[in-house]
Design goal:
The chain is an alpha/beta fold and 490 residues long. It has 16 helices and 15 strands. The strands form 5 sheets. It has a 5-stranded parallel beta sheet with strand order 5-4-3-10-11, with helices on both faces. The longest helix has 27 residues, at 327-353. Bound molecules: adenosine monophosphate and zinc ion. Adenosine monophosphate binds at residues 31, 33-34, 42-43, 45-46, 238-239, 241-242, 277, 279-280, 287.
């Protein structure tokens, strides 16, 4: 391993060479989902990004400690202080307990995590398990950095140096969304503890020195990251929206907790590197959870797209670029994945025929060196996955090389990209759209009859069978170069 790993730090706005706080280790915290609804595929891009980061760190030989949190309390309908608690609102709408809502949507999120081949982190930290620690944290910073109002305990952003340095859109527009609470010293001050209004009871509330209530969302991440990884840890990740309010507020709290209040990035912002993935965008606005049918991973699966095609689609863009979602783009990613899977399947079959062993313990020879270096160099340059993918394809295309070694190199590269190439089979990639009124078995039966008709030179019957399939939404693809002999159009 030669190329040093460089990563873009949103806080210093520059590419930095990764130097771990603890030699040989990498400690990473990822802001996880608020489990009040299903995640959309844009949310999942954030976790694919964090997964690739973790896999690259492992590939580079660091011992990875990764924490992803589950927010089950405290996140309001606006990232700043306005609005209702997202969990409370959904519980009321679905007439369920918050705990039941959290359980259901956490399971749904984990199903997407598994389907996208995202590795399990060291810890899924659940916010409600850390409330006493949050109260202790708040007690420590309150005397010098907070003030109490009727509605809660507020953080005074003027009490720390350089508040909001991370934010880009730190403008009137950003501040316009911040709730005007009477008595706030600065517009950007935020609640770290929200008191339950007199006469009300909330489903989730705890006693605190500031009365019964619930912790603020920003406080949760400071506490869980500090407690599980220790300040300062190496890398904090999230989507770019978090760069504007959530992470500046976490940083302010971390500065306060680290006592100096200054902003010596390495020492007291909590993490050395703050990394943010850009958004997945969709022109028709289907991404939004508030619009009826939104883009969930399950919708992609229901339409017959394998979830790993979506993972591949994410990898085709560098994480700091915006990525536009389209069904055509997803279809192209599926075909690209299928080419890779078929090539690896053939390679394994040939190795088998030759009695060769699959992967384990095979040392790749010099013929692979340039491509292995190119692969590592691409990922070392701020996780350039689009280039890494093309390098993988170049390895797959190599001729006249040792097959076992070739498979070993593919396995090493796939361990970083996570496309599951050694386990997937071509047949796994064909999912039947949910709306289809015909099963794969029925299609195969009709196709077998059609093949027989053609063998018998009964072309009228063969055409009739083809038309019958077409009427049921099945396109017959004779001579498809990818060997896809039919396709169901959803
Ligand atoms: P939430 O559950 O709303 O807290 O969001 C979970 C993660 O998804 C956060 O890291 C967000 O920054 C990120 N995120 C939200 N929308 C998108 C999007 N369209 N594309 C990429 N990441 C997103
Ligand atoms: Zn967070």
């Amino acid at each position: 391993m030669t190329t040093p790993l460089t990563l873009f730090n949103s806080l210093t706005r520059s590419l930095e060479t990764f130097t771990p706080v603890y030699p040989g280790e990498a400690r990473v915290y990822t802001c996880g989902p608020t489990v009040y609804n299903y995640p959309h595929i844009g949310n999942m891009r954030a976790y694919v990004f964090a997964d690739v980061l973790g896999r690259v760190l492992s590939f580079k030989g660091y011992k990875l400690s990764h924490v992803i949190n589950i927010t089950d309390v405290g996140h309001l309908t606006d990232d700043a202080d306005a609005g209702e608690d997202k969990m409370e609102r959904m519980a009321a709408r679905e007439a369920k307990s918050i705990w039941a809502i959290a359980e259901h949507y956490t399971q749904a999120y984990w199903a997407d995590i598994r389907a996208l081949n995202i590795r399990q982190p060291m810890e899924w930290s659940v916010a409600t398990n850390y409330v006493p620690a949050m109260i202790a944290f708040a007690e420590r910073i309150a005397p010098n950095h907070c003030y109490e109002l009727e509605s809660g305990l507020y953080f005074d952003v003027a009490s720390v140096a350089d508040y909001g340095r991370l934010a880009r859109a730190h403008t009137e527009e950003g501040e316009g969304r911040i709730e005007a609470v009477e008595g706030k010293r600065n517009a950007a001050d935020f609640a770290i503890w929200r008191k339950t209004p007199p006469g009300e009871t909330r489903q989730m509330e705890w006693d605190s020195p500031w009365g019964r209530g619930a912790p603020g969302w920003h406080l949760e991440c400071s506490v869980m990251s500090g407690q599980l990884l220790g300040f300062p840890f190496d890398i904090h990740t999230g989507g770019i929206d978090h760069r504007e309010i959530h992470h500046p507020n976490e940083i302010a709290q971390n500065q306060a907790f680290c006592c100096t209040g200054g902003l010596d990035v390495a020492a007291n912002s909590g993490a050395r590197l703050w990394m943010h993935n850009n958004f997945l965008v969709e022109r028709s606005g289907k991404m939004s959870k508030s619009s009826g049918e939104f883009l969930r991973l399950q919708l992609l699966i229901d339409r017959g797209y394998h979830p790993l095609a979506y993972r591949l689609m994410c990898l085709q863009a560098q994480y700091r670029s915006e990525l536009e979602f389209s069904w055509e783009g997803l279809g192209a990613a599926l075909i690209r994945l299928k080419r890779l899977v078929m090539a690896v399947e053939q390679l394994r079959a040939r190795l088998n025929d030759e009695g060769g062993a699959v992967a384990q313990g095979v040392e790749p020879g010099a013929a692979f060196q340039p491509l292995r270096q190119a692969f590592e160099a691409a990922l070392s340059e701020d996780l350039n996955t689009p280039v890494a993918l093309t390098v993988l394809e170049q390895v797959v295309a190599l001729k006249k090389v040792d097959l076992a070694q070739k498979l070993a190199v593919i396995a090493q590269m796939d361990a970083v990209l996570g496309l599951d190439l050694l386990a997937l089979a071509r047949a796994d990639l064909r999912l039947t759209p949910k709306a289809a009124e015909i099963t794969a078995e029925e299609i195969e039966t009709v196709l077998a009859a059609r093949r027989q008709a053609r063998a018998d030179k009964d072309f009228a019957r063969s055409d009739a069978l083809r038309d019958e399939l077409a009427a049921r939404g099945v396109e017959v693809m004779d001579g498809d170069p990818l060997g896809w002999d039919w396709r169901l159009n959803a």
